[in-house]
Amino acid sequence: MTHFLDIHKTDPAALRDMINSAHAMKTARRGLPKGTTDAEQPLAGRMIALIFEKPSTRTRVSFDVGARQMGGQTMILSGKEMQLGHGESIADTARVLSRYVDLIMLRTFEEATLHEMAEHATVPVINGLTDASHPCQIMADIVTYEEHRGPIAGRKFVWSGDGNNVCSSWLHAAGQFGFDLTFTGPETLDPDPRAVEFARAKGSKVEITRDPLEAAKGADAIVTDTWVSMHDPESARERRHNQLRPYQVNEEMMARGNPDALFMHCLPAHRNEEATNAVMDGPQSVIFDESENRLHAQKAILRWCLGV
Ligand code: CP
Ligand code: NVA
What we know:
Layout: H1 12-29, E1 47-52, H2 58-69, E2 73-78, H3 90-100, E3 103-107, H4 111-120, E4 125-127, H5 135-149, E5 156-160, H6 165-177, E6 180-184, H7 193-201, E7 206-209, H8 212-216, E8 221-224, H9 237-244, H10 251-256, E9 262-265, H11 277-280, H12 287-306
Parallel strand pairs: 1-2, 1-3, 3-4, 5-6, 5-8, 6-7, 8-9
Helix pairs in contact: 1-5, 1-12, 2-12, 3-4, 5-6, 5-12, 6-7
The structure holds phosphoric acid mono(formamide)ester (CP) and norvaline.
Phosphoric acid mono(formamide)ester is lined by residues 56-59, 129, 137, 266-268.
């Protein structure tokens, strides 16, 4: 079964093929109305279930539109409205859904839930974000970086803020695509050591520093994300804001990076918190290209999972 569970668990050659396929499919659609189907219909006859146990705008819409452009049919399911949210096991849900649909995309809380779904499903499972990672986002972000600046290998990325799920997927990508990553943030919010180890073992330079302006020196891209993720308790909000305020991406920080450094953010953003409006709407920002590229990258992921 070809699941797409994480960037570090996927063969690097397959990852590169998906990035190339995303670029090609994006180019082929240039200028077409969004509802136009692709010339090729590799998902014809396929039914895709998109399950959300957390809110979503981009993941939900981009998977739905992407599958339909390729001729597939989709259904969007809310975890709360399924028996899954009322005591039915993940394993039984996986077995039942596998009788109806050809692929399951799941956005959930614990990483273990995703793995249990993949273990018991007899159709491919895609990770649409867990507390621990967000691989579809980073595939789209690699498409975005490379369409603006060329090959990502050998570049220096700087992550400023919370070492969260999105940061872990960036570290996995650093290892698989051969770039370096400097993390800057408070010690209590350091990235997952397993992700740091993975990138280092693959030969990436991973640095951790508490000084955001020092970290930004020589950056090819500066990346951040919300200070409070969907899985973080509301009670942690004030403490996190106080700890993360020095790591806001602002014009001073962008000025320390290379002159052609990009600003990246997966969105949704809390404007003027983790990044200023001047940066988010400035000439170095590619945030809406990242959102668009979710569509193209995930179309490539769907095709890879289904072998079509
Ligand atoms: N970036 C991202 O996954 O956005 P959504 O939460 O809107 O899906
Ligand atoms: N880190 C964020 C990403 C949202 C797309 C979260 O998990 O809420």
